Amino acid sequence: MKKTKKQIEQIAKGIKLLALDVDGVLTDGGITLDNDGNELKTFHVRDGHGIKMLQKAGLQVALITGRDSKVVDRRARELGIKEVYQKCHDKRIAYKHLIEKLGVSDEEVAYIGDDIVDIPLFRKVGLAVAVADATDETKDEAMLVTKSRGGRGAVREICDLILKANGKWKVLTDEYYKI
Predict the structure, then answer these.
(1) How far apart are CA 142 and CA 94, in angstroms?
(2) Kind and range of the H or E element at 109?
(3) What's the rounded Cα separation, in Å, for the pair 114 and 26?
(4) N or C: lower Cβ tally within 10 Å for the chain?
(5) In a domain, 178, yes or no
(6) Are 56 and 76 in contact (CB under 8 A)?
(7) How many structural domains does the chain have?
């Protein structure tokens, strides 16, 4: 199922929605629980910036996760992600609702995952991406495996790829080079 760089770029050119798993993709997969029942997760700031750049370019971003966490709601609010689906034991149900709501086709969706629960979505979307530290089974089903690990820049890697393929990278980054 792996694709060549040229094939990936062609697919990425048509992406309108980036859907993400959370634990192991936006985070490194670690979950810290304290004695008061609080859940702590660490998110990479560059992943967040990549998401903001996608949104600025007019692309949608959504989260689909099996867990339920207040931390995920908070991070989604901080990033302006409105489409958040938690407690998804069958991610296909949330995914179907999401694409119908946003009016996008399977081919216009990129999905990043890290574990076997993500494979059903890999088999539906236009661009199926596994993070570098995903399970072997998940990597085998992906079209592309990131160089970066989950929670350590993998999402940013794909955001940049999509923006460059869409021809929006230079316009978005030119503002950072102005004096």
Answers:
(1) 20
(2) strand 109-113
(3) 10
(4) C
(5) no
(6) no
(7) 1
pLDDT digits (tens, 9 = 90+) for 152-175: 999 999 999 999 999 999 999 988
Angle, CA of 97, 100 and 106, to the nearest 5°? 100
As a whole number of angstroms, the distance between CA 175 and CA 163 comes to 15
Whether residue 174 lies inside any domain: the answer is no
* Per-residue tokens: 125: 């979307």
Question: Which amino acid makes up residue 1?
Answer: M
CA-based R_g, the chain, Å: 15
The crossing angle, in degrees rounded to 10, of helices 5-13 and 154-165 is: 70
pTM exceeds 0.90 for this model: yes
What is the structure's pLDDT at 175? Answer: 83
pLDDT in tens, 90-131: 999 999 999 999 999 999 999 999 999 999 999 999 999 999
CATH of the domain at 149: 3.40.50.1000
User: What are the two backbone dihedrals, phi and then psi, of residue 59, each rounded to the nearest 5 degrees?
Assistant: -90, 155
pLDDT of the residue at 179: 63
Domain that holds residue 114: 5-169
Residue with tokens 């592309």: 144
- Asked, for residue 175, whether it belongs to a domain, the answer is no
Dihedral of the CA atoms 64, 37, 27, 13 (nearest 10)? 20
How confident is the model at residue 176, as a pLDDT?
84
Q: Is residue 161 part of a domain?
A: yes
